[in-house]
Amino acid sequence: MPRGSRRTPLAKRPVLGHVAEHDLGAAAYAIRAAQAAEQGSIEAGARECEWQRQQLPEEVRSLVLEDQNRRRAICWNVFTN
Question: What is the pTM of this model?
């Protein structure tokens, strides 16, 4: 590939999509931390989840909520409806 090219090498392309998945994992860990900080309080986790959702830009909100629903089971079921 020529130096300074804007194209992403084929070997790196799968990684780009995978990196976004880490954001959801970090959000789930934050929810679990909120629960643990209040002796396992499910309500504390729900408050953290709601706060996170309020921070989402409107342009991506539906995509993130869809991803949370799709991968809820691998994220300890912390994402509330």
Answer: 0.74
